[in-house]
Amino acid sequence: MSILLTGGAGYIGSHTCVELLNAGYDVVVVDNYVNSQPEALRRVETITGKKVTAYEADVCDKAAMDAIFAKEKIEAVIHFAGLKAVGESVAEPLMYYRNNLDSTLTLVETMVKYGCKRIVFSSSATVYGAPDFSPVPETARLGCSNPYGWTKYMIEQILRDWAAAQKDVSVVLLRYFNPVGAHPSGLIGENPNGRPNNLMPNVLNAASGKVKELKVFGGDYDTPDGTCVRDYIHVVDLAKGHVCALKYAAEHTGSEAINLGTGVGYSVLDIINSFERSTGVKVPYVITERRPGDVPSYYANPEKAAKLLNWHTEKTLDDMCRDSWAFKSKNPNGYEA
Ligand code: NAD
Ligand code: WQD
After folding, report:
1. Which of 75, 151, 154, 169 counts the most CB atoms within 10 A of its CB?
2. What pLDDT, in 10s, does the model give residues 80-101?
């Protein structure tokens, strides 16, 4: 029996492949490589010394998904596949709704056909919109501010409704906070296409001299140092959370939404300081105007993950920065030679 990882060649998927293989699971990946490269999976095999079975296909493609389920014995699915750029989702909302919703419906219909009843879904803290308070519990009011976020909100609802209708189904909705970092080997990491939007890839570009300086969006927020505060989580801790979620899904039916965060908020300046301290490399930066739509501060309440999944984060902010830099230094052009 194998675990199917949709979008398993991507940033979080590839790190989860490593943790699953290390935990003794067999892994099958389906990815159309719209935002990833097959090389990531070859490196997963190098790290683990184990084999990844990979299919190049679009999860929206019913015939392709049917063929994969017919060939492989899939005991559970982790559904990472999706488009994830917030700004692009505002410019191209239909593309986001089509890809993220259609892939989920096709996947779940195929699971139903083949009697596969367990799914762990990559949701996001973005479903909380602008939270009223932190730490944010899973019971907080939901509401999104962009089409990407609404796709996560809608997919959560689709999966919850499925679990409500079919009593032997198990759904775990993992709400990630801000994933950063890379595998300590420096072999796999985040490899964004085009100009990155997220903080850590921009820190890396400034540190490596690829851009002149990091733009810090806003220095006048009502936060301890005036810059925005987020809950950054090491991608290896996050990946281990998926192994725990799979175990939970094997023992429980119904649906649960669970935060994956550290419970600690750090500011943009904290990240810069930690990066410089842990790598010895300077991050040139300039404080500019606020980025429209940014929430000043939020971080997770991770108690539910501790209680239900017996999962805790282990890595520090310095680990996140050091490991991000190791991947960037070893792979200045990402997975391209
Ligand atoms: P990623 O882009 O690196 O990985 C997504 C993978 O899905 C890519 O390999 C891409 O090629 C693949 N994919 C997309 N659409 C597909 C389709 N129709 N068929 C087959 N493959 C498809 O992103 P990531 O950072 O690894 O994120 C994984 C998941 O976690 C996404 O669903 C994302 O929305 C969610 N998430 C990410 C973050 C984050 O900050 N990275 C935060 C919260 C939630
Ligand atoms: C973090 C902080 C920026 C870039 C996004 C999505 C969210 C989730 C995670 C998927 C903010 C500041 C950033 C830069 C900066 N993804 N910043 N200079 O906005 O918290 O969340 O990614 O689900 O849905 O919205 O993450 O990394 O973009 O920003 O100063 O060049 O860094 O203002 O305070 P964000 P981020």
Report:
1. 151
2. 999 999 999 999 999 999 999 9
